[in-house]
Structures are given as C-alpha cells and as structure tokens.
Design a protein that fits this description.
The chain is an alpha/beta fold. The protein is built from 19 helices and 14 strands.
Length: 418
C-alpha cells in the first residue's frame, strides 16, 4: 500500500502540473488514503464512493440489501461502513475464491475474463442474489470488465466504472483549498531566519502540530550582501533575491517574507515581477508604531548603514507622519561593528563587545529624544532576547522588533485565510 501511495501521489502531482480539471482514481483500495492525497494537491480527486452513493440514492431505498464483491483489504477497512452505512451489505462466504478470481495467476487482473475467474464471480453473485440482495456492487474495478457477461446471465450488477465516469463528468471542477503556505527568503542572515521562524511558531495560537503554519524556506546565504551593494556598489543582490522569491512562488507559497530589513530596499522592484505578495516588514513596523505611539513620535532607528542610506525606513516612517532619529557617524560605526565586527552578532556573538556597542547606540538615541527605537536589522533582536524595552537610570523606551511584528502579521494573514 505504501508503494501505491507513492505512485498515486506522483501521478496526481504530474496531473496538477498539467493543470487538469480533476483526477479519477479508479481503485477502491487507493481511496483509503484519498484524504492524504487531496491535502497535497489543489486538483480535485473525484471520490468513487461519492459516485456510488449518489447512484444508489437514486435507485435504491435505504436499508436495501446490497451484495458486495470486494478485496479483503477494502472489506476489512472502514471505507464501506463509512460510505454505505444506509444499506445492508452482504458479502460472499468464499472470499478466498473471489480473491483468486481477481488476483490469481489466471485471474481477471492478468486479462483472463472467461473460464474459472468468470465462474467464480458468477458463483459469488448467485449466492448473494439467493440471500436477498437486490443488486451486486463490485468494489473491485476489474469486475466491471465482466458486467456484460454477468448481465446476460441474469445478474443485476452495477458497472462501477461507468457510474464513476458519468459522475465525474456531471460534476463541476472545484479547485481544492490548500493550507496557507509561507515562503521565507532565508539566509539573510541565517540566524535571523531561524529567529523569525521561531517567532512565527511562538505567535501562532496552536494546540497541536497541525495548527501551525506551513513554511517553506530557501536558505540562501549566498545572496550578495545588501549593505555592501548599497554603500560600496558591490554585487547587486536583486537577481538573487528575485530568483529565491520565484522558487518560493513556484513551490506554492501564498505569501513571501524576507526577514532582512536591508533587503527591503529592493522589494519594490522585485514585487512588480512576482505573482505572490511580499509581506513588507518596513510597512508593518511603521503601522505598529503609528497605532501604538501615534503621529509625530520620535522614532530612533538602529540599522545597517545600507538600510539608513537607502532611506527605506525613512520614506515609510515619514509617510506615516513619524519623525526619524538616526545615530551620528560615531555611533553608527558602533552599530555596524555590533553587527559585522569580528565579535559581532553575524559572527555568532550575542554578548560582550557587540552588546556594549549597541547599548551605547541606544543610549545615544535616547539622548536625541527617541521615544521608541526600531531594531532595524534582523540580527539586532538577537542581542535583546529577554526584553522589548531598554532602561537606564532616567528613562525607558520600547525596542521595536520588526521580525516579531512581521511574524505576527504573517500569523494573522494565515489564520484569516482559514
């Protein structure tokens, strides 16, 4: 059965890529894992039991005795009891003989439609008919190959393949809803990606594994440095970022997140060539500050020099009526060292020199009347894992974590699509 699952899954995904309207699965045993398949494809798989129950409801009253010819696997499963609970199901006594007629060396599956296979099936049908069954329902699709011969012998047997085909053609095509899937441009930087995913998990109202959001990550640390491009005109990361987004789009992402503040200097151009929205970290952060602190708030910005020079935060924050406060050159150098230095956060350090440097910069912004401070590089929140506020002897300001705000925005987007 596991091999059959892999086979059916591969075919369904192939059909999905070909953009077929619906898929037929003329195999009763395979319907035992139909739900598993359907969750992994947006193409509708027509349920053969839906076709049968629809047909029976039009032809037979509830409680009718129906003779069932099926495999031992289907008989022992819950399929028949689940779908045909409105009818009295009767089975032939000699199940072994029936299985031999189907699966034996000279059985129907091997192309033998006369001789013993036909006689064994006919014998089972006559027994069921004698037990008061009004109709024979073959839940092995190969038996439909004998339908004409059994009809000529007076057996009232359903051609399930014909019923299945007619039902499929009569039903409209409805694309199957799939769980929300978030695509993440990872590796910019690597630790920040893990931090972002963890914040999504912590922000999700889940009681079990299955309540969490599907995420697909393209962890691509080889994307050229965004700050190096913006400051020193080094390698342009646009194509690498766009290529990563296209892979996430092709993988079925409903939305894309880029847990890198500086990368948002390139988002506008990239978005124009995507069919999937990028959830903008800069915009969501500005909206959070506006909602919680109001217009005219003095917003301190700790970010890479590339982010500051691109004015990606400045443009959005001022658009929302917020004032922007940035460090002077000396303290901006401290910020860059805390991120990129030999003992900086990108090198794996979260305490010591890098923490001292960023604390100096925070104090500097407070002295410049910053009322709230954005940790505008996704590595910076790693330096403040236990708090969202900074306190000195005189005052306290909130440290706004755009990574967390982006994570909560994504969770809201995902849960609103359920």
């Amino acid at each position: 059965m596991k091999s059959r699952k892999f086979y059916a899954f591969n075919l369904c995904k192939n059909f999905e890529q070909q953009k077929v309207s619906k898929v037929l699965l003329p195999c009763f045993a395979s319907h035992s894992f139909l739900d598993e398949l359907q969750k992994e494809t947006s193409t509708s798989i027509v349920n053969i039991f839906d076709a049968i129950t629809h047909y029976l409801s039009l032809k037979f009253k509830k409680g009718t005795k129906i003779g069932v010819l099926t495999s031992s696997f289907v008989k022992e499963s819950s399929l028949l009891k689940t779908y045909l609970q409105d009818y009295e199901l009767i089975y032939p006594t000699n199940q072994t003989q029936l299985m031999h007629a189907i699966y034996g060396k000279s059985g129907i599956k091997n192309g033998y439609l006369d001789g013993l296979p036909l006689e064994y099936v006919y014998e089972a049908c006559t027994e069921l008919k004698a037990n008061g069954c009004e109709v024979i329902l073959p839940c092995i699709t190969e038996i439909a190959l004998l339908a004409n011969k059994l009809w000529t012998r007076g057996i009232s047997i359903i051609d399930v393949n014909e019923i299945y085909a007619d039902y499929a053609l009569s039903q409209g095509s409805t694309p199957q809803p799939k769980p929300f899937k978030l695509g993440i441009v990872g590796g910019v930087g690597p630790s920040a990606t893990v931090d972002f995913m963890n914040k999504i998990i912590q922000s999700t109202p889940a009681k079990k594994d299955q309540d969490h959001i599907k995420m697909i990550v393209e962890q691509n640390p080889q994307i050229p440095d965004r700050t190096a491009n913006l400051i020193y005109n080094q390698t342009d990361p646009t194509i690498a970022l766009f290529s990563t987004c296209k892979k996430l789009e092709a993988a079925g992402s409903n939305a894309i997140a880029i847990p890198c503040n500086t990368a948002h200097a390139f988002v506008k151009e990239i978005q124009e060539h995507l069919n999937v929205p990028i959830v903008n970290m800069i915009t969501t952060t500005a909206e959070y500050i506006l909602e919680n602190f109001g217009k005219e708030t003095n917003v301190g910005l700790l970010a890479t020099s590339g982010t500051i020079q691109s004015q990606v935060y400045y443009n959005v924050l001022t658009h929302y009526g917020l004032q922007v406060v940035i460090p002077d050159d000396t303290h901006q150098n401290d910020v860059m060292e805390s991120i990129y230095g030999d003992r900086g956060v990108k090198a794996g350090y979260t305490d010591g020199l890098c923490k001292e440097q960023i604390n100096k910069s925070v104090n500097h912004l407070i002295k410049r009347n910053a009322q709230v401070i954005i940790l505008g590089c996704t590595e910076l929140p790693l330096l403040f894992p236990e708090t969202n506020a900074f306190r000195d002897n005189k005052t306290a300001v909130e440290l706004v974590d755009p990574t967390l705000i982006l994570a909560k925005t994504v969770v809201h987007l995902a849960t609103s699509n359920l």
